[in-house]
């Protein structure tokens, strides 16, 4: 039986899950970074085969781009341009491929994001967070329906936790959103945290950019079930709704710092349960003890998401906050703060990966660990030395910035 073959790229046979080079070298040490990227110190950048679980080298676009002008490089540039045009035209398959490329850490995904970013920045990004079992998926489903009835195109990012033992994720949030599956103006994507803390997946920020550029008027982000300090969604979202449920803890819980402080809107869900009124009083007491610097007092909305009761009021409260942001220029400030932190985060990640590739090869990592284990060196001096060597190398090489000609 002859199976379907993937195309060859730059002399390498394709695979259904990743591109493998014709020649590989043995791995010295593999490890997982904080950003969910696999590396081998002996072979350079590595990826995990999603089919077999094996870790293998991947031919990236950056290794292909720049060679054979007018050949593969030219064709790949045209392909990315066409791909971006399809995403901008709301082609669902192109959007799905774009998100998959970004999640896989493929450099093609980065090249695509460069073309999509100028078209982003128009969508209203709303984060929905809360503890496990608070009803986030049900509320997101009903809230998406409210926005659709108002004529908005909606993107939904549902983040599920990754198992620390198997590395797998159920991605079951979308199961609760079956009523939306037939609506072509709603795009739903499930993502796994891949071990990242904060309630979001490592590439949630980039997926928002893709859905934004693809014409979504509203992007709803459902975080994993969070504790008291998973507040990453507030940095990304224009508005954050925090779900609370009666009977999930005593009144002391409402006064603890962290997730309670990030909400622009409090939603008390499952108000058909006993204790809803008491919970509302506790949140009101917390809000009365301190005011926000921007002058906004987060409203409290009661809802029963399973029946849709109160969901319209949730949307109205979010619209009121959006109007408040626009009147006070708060939205522009929040997005400026977000883009600043996002830029620094990307810079930090790329510099980290550069050091891994260039300074921790040929077993040097294990040598450093041996030195630390025997107390022949301290970690602070080693890090300073590695950074100094990397900076010295960069300062001695004149780099060309893509797209500038400099």
**CATH architecture group name of the largest domain:** 3-Layer(aba) Sandwich
Mean pLDDT: 76
Which residue ranges are poorly predicted, with pLDDT under 50 across at least 5 consecutive positions?
1-49, 52-75
Q: What is the radius of gyration?
A: 24 Å
Lateral strand order in the biggest sheet: 7-6-8-5-9-10-11
Order of helices and strands: EEEEHHHHEHEEHEHEEHEHHHH
Distance between the termini: 53 Å
Largest sheet: 7 strands, parallel
- How many separate domains? 4
Strand content: 5-15%
CATH class of the largest domain: Alpha Beta
Query: SS-based structural class?
Result: alpha/beta
CATH superfamily of the largest domain: P-loop containing nucleotide triphosphate hydrolases
Q: Number of helical segments?
A: 12
Oligomer: single chain
Shape label: globular
Fill in the CATH topology of the largest domain. Rossmann fold
Give a structural overview.
- The protein has 4 domains: 1-59, no CATH class; 65-116, no CATH class; 121-328, P-loop containing nucleotide triphosphate hydrolases (Rossmann fold); 340-395, no CATH class.
- The strands form 2 sheets. It has a 7-stranded parallel β-sheet, sandwiched between helices. Strands 1-2-3-4 form a 4-stranded antiparallel β-sheet, with no helix packed on it.
- The protein starts with 29 loop residues before the first strand and ends in an 11-residue tail after the last helix.
- It is built from 12 helices and 11 strands.
- The longest helix is centred in the C-terminal third of the chain and has 30 residues, at 330-359.
- The chain is an alpha/beta fold and 406 residues long.
- Helix content is 40%, strand content 13%.
- Strand 2 (38-40) and strand 3 form a beta hairpin.
- Residues 1-49 and 52-75 have low confidence and may be disordered.
């Amino acid at each position: 039986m002859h199976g379907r073959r993937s195309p060859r790229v730059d002399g390498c046979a394709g695979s259904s899950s990743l591109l493998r080079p014709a020649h590989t070298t043995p791995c010295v040490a593999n490890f997982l970074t904080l950003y969910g990227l696999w590396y081998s110190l002996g072979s350079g950048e590595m990826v995990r085969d999603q089919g077999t679980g094996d870790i293998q080298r991947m031919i990236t676009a950056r290794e292909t781009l720049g060679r054979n002008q007018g050949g593969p490089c030219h064709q790949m540039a045209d392909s990315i341009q066409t791909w971006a045009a399809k995403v901008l035209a709301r082609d669902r398959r192109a959007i799905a491929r774009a998100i998959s490329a970004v999640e896989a850490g493929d450099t093609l995904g980065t090249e695509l994001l460069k073309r999509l970013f100028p078209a982003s920045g128009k969508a209203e990004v709303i984060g929905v967070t809360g503890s496990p079992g608070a009803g986030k998926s049900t509320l997101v489903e009903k809230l998406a329906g409210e926005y659709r009835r108002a004529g908005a195109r909606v993107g939904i990012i549902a983040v599920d936790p990754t198992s620390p033992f198997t590395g797998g994720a159920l991605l079951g949030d979308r199961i609760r959103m079956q009523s939306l599956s037939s609506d072509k103006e709603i795009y739903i994507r499930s993502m796994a945290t891949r071990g990242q803390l904060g309630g979001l997946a490592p590439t949630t920020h980039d997926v928002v950019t893709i859905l934004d550029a693809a014409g979504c008027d509203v992007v709803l982000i459902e975080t994993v079930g969070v504790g008291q300090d998973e507040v990453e969604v507030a940095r990304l979202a224009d508005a954050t709704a925090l779900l609370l449920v009666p009977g999930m803890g005593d009144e002391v819980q409402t006064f603890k710092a962290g997730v309670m402080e990030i909400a622009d809107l409090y939603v008390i869900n499952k108000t058909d349960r006993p204790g809803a009124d008491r919970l509302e009083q506790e949140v009101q007491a917390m809000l009365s003890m301190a005011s926000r610097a921007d002058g906004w007092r987060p409203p409290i909305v009661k809802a029963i998401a399973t029946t849709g009761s109160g969901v319209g009021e949730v949307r109205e409260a979010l619209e009121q906050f959006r109007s408040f942001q626009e009147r006070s220029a708060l939205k522009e400030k929040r997005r400026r703060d977000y883009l600043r932190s996002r830029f620094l985060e990307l810079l930090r990640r790329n510099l980290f990966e550069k050091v891994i590739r260039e300074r921790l090869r040929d077993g040097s990592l294990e040598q450093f660990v041996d030195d630390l284990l025997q107390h022949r060196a301290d970690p602070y001096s080693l890090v300073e030395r590695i950074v100094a060597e990397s900076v010295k190398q960069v300062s001695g090489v004149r780099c060309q910035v893509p797209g500038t000609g400099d």
